[in-house]
Amino acid sequence: MRLIGSALLVALLSGLSVNAAAPSAIAAGEEVLVERATSGTPGGRLVVALRAEPRTLNPAAAADAPSREVIGRMSGDLIHIDRATQSTESALASQWKRSTDGREYTLSLRKGIRFSDGHAFDADDVVFTFRVLLDERTGAPQRDLLIVGGQPIRVTKIDEYTVKVALSQPYAAAERLFDSIAILPQHLLNDAYEKGAMGQIWSVATPATSIAGLGPYRLKEYVAGQRLVLERNPYYWKIDSTKRRLPYIDELVFLFTGNEDAQVIRFQSGDSDVLSRASADNFAVLARDQAAQRYQLKDLGPSLEYNFLFFNQNDLSGKTLPQVAMKQQWFGDLGFRRAVSRAIDREGIARLVYRGRAVPLWGNVSPGNRLWINTALPRLPRSVSEARAILTSSGFSWRPDGQLLDRQGRPVSFTIVTSSTSAQRTEMATLIQADLKELGMDVQVVPLEFRALVDRVFQSFDYDASILGLGGGDADPNGEMNVWLSTGSNHLWRLGQQKPATPWEAEVDRLMQKQLVTLDYRERKQLFDRVQTIVAEQLPFIFLAAPHILVGARADIGNFQPSVLDHYTLWNVERMFFRPELRTRR
Amino acid sequence: MKRLGLIASVLASLHLLVLLAGFVAPYDPVEQTRTLPFAPPAHLHFVDSRGQFHLRPFVYALVPDSENFESYVEDTTQRFPVQFMVSGSAYNVLPGLESRLHLFGVHAPARVSLLGTDGLGRDVLSRLLHGGRMSIGAGLIATLCALLVGMGLGTLAGFFGGRVDAAVMRLADLFMAVPWLYLLFAVRAALPLHLDTRATFLLLVAVLGIVGWARPARMIRGIVLSARERTFVTAARGFGARAPYLLKRHIVPQTLGVVLTQAGLLVPQYILAEVTLSFLGLGVGEPTPSWGAMLGSLQQYSVLTSYWWMFTPAIALVAVAISYYALTSMVHERMRLAAS
Prior knowledge:
By secondary structure, chain A is α+β, with helices and mostly antiparallel strands. In chain A, 28% of the residues lie in helices and 21% in strands.
């Protein structure tokens, strides 16, 4: 049954011709963006398997990855971060200027370009977009990013094609703020906004004619539980070197699968054409199966994601958790954390958990982030004897049977909670368990359902230690503010601080705030280097490894240039095309 | 008759192997050899690379293939003959009694992993044998709990009848309707994290067994119900025998057949329950091996499609279950013959 079902689907999806709207002719005065070194062949249909069904198509409400994956293809931003170079480039704003005090940006918008429904785009749409996103009633996830120095940014219209953005204080790399902020069509959404109904608009079931954006694709059809189909935006504002309007590929089909394994199976069987982020295990399976040469696999090297072990150092005074409170005497002891860090076999984690497709980490910046990594951080190799010496000098001792005892003679024993859906993090915990056994620590590994884990880490604080991963956003340090500021929402080891609990956290606060208002890259780098040094010394997180970004695509896809930044594979979908000379293979 | 003996001895030797896991297994089941993840089962050689025959089987050391991660090549420069009665990692024969004697092994750096290694380089055969302890142990403990409670309540209901019977049987209906998996999820969630995972697991198994009392209780009740109306029981009653004497002398012995066959059916069922629990992450927890925990790694597509030796716990599970079922049906047959 299943076999027939999927065969039917393939037949359906690789239908002979695609009826997409023909690209509209380039109008006089239309300020299109020319992708210089780009050429390709138009036509075809690209199929992508999503892990889950997108919840919404509303850019001002989407928080889940599948929704953002789809919305990203349907919308345009003012200034864009080029995923290949990691630097900013012109998008809907053809150029921009920063005032000398760094508090004002003047953006010139592209003239004569249109939304995917043919309606003209101008400064009113930009002003409308920021009004909507900054309005608390909207509840947009982007809102926090647009608040600089405690004040929302102010966007005002100068003329039809010029806007001014004012910040309450200088803000480093402020132009990066605009990346991935979808500009909304005022003509379609003004009514909903006036009624305070922005949260309810543009569900996946909304008719395609009521949705428009400035991205390379627009909605064509949605089949609940199965797929979502986008078609080319005939008014897209980018053209190639031969003056052909992009994108090349007529249709983009998103299939809904259940999980990563299902995604990989779909790709392996040829049901889908592009695979974003495979696990190392699945990558190995695909690599072995590559004999047919139906697809290309790429290992892009270390991602920006960092995985780490951390101990619960939260203030438990309002809670009744005597077990955890007792253990916090160890967790708060720098010698204890240093000993744990020295005993962990990071190379082993990279080799066994990620099949060699990861780099061991000693700091919060992955080698994938070339601009910001502090390469001077010491990379201390595993040493059980060093770790034991550190424990001895911190007052720990050992029972004759090898069990580690603290100053009061209590056996050192704690639990590491991990997410049961992440086989990798549970494996890491098992390796660490064996490593720490050599120090006489009795460690238990408890995989929990992800929501139960999040509840313990963020709400109840009822846990000893956990392994989590962060990162994967922008390469800029500003993305890390919420982790390192003592008031940050991801300051996981000690949440909800009124004022910094330790002098070094106060110092990190100062450095992070200072880099935020420093405009010179070299000065900022020095400040952020110092943050990395402090964190590596104080070890609130014990960094483990950064996995590589592993992706795949059908062999006949041209301009496939995956990146270590999100979205890894489809970021340049408007430039992708099917190579006709390789096409018969399928 | 011969077949019964054969099945019984197969089952006995399976249990003995598992009981003597420390001795039979060549390695410590939690020892990680981090250079050898997913190493395939060791090849036992008799003929070396120069074509020479050796009476004693030997292995070569495995070295990771430098070009192809996760595949291995044999280093044929040195032979490592399989030794018997060797000294290796320490294990407990009985609680408190430590030994280092292993049935077989090879000298380091070579390793003889007859069933390969798992993703952390742990010997699958050793984990299989030690894991059997946990899985079969879970099956036996849960069965014992179910039968003890079932026998007690079933006998009570059957013997006294009336309101007692009605109450016990309604309770049994209630227990049969309990969705045990969700009950266990709830129990696990309610337990504090710092409890030893092995203790938690045994607790879960006991809960599982206690919840399972209803079915055996019903069968035992039926037997007791008919036994108490038998003429010899009535006669004994007429001679003034009291309830404890009647139960001990005449009634409980009648239920033995049912208890035995129920045990034979319940043990494999509860072993499967352990596998289910561990598969869902409610099991013993790393690094302690159990068959369910070992099979849990097959949830990953890559393991499922790449390493056949990771299926061996399933084979062991099937072998044990079939032996139990075969034994049960033979015992049942024999009892029927004896009764007629």
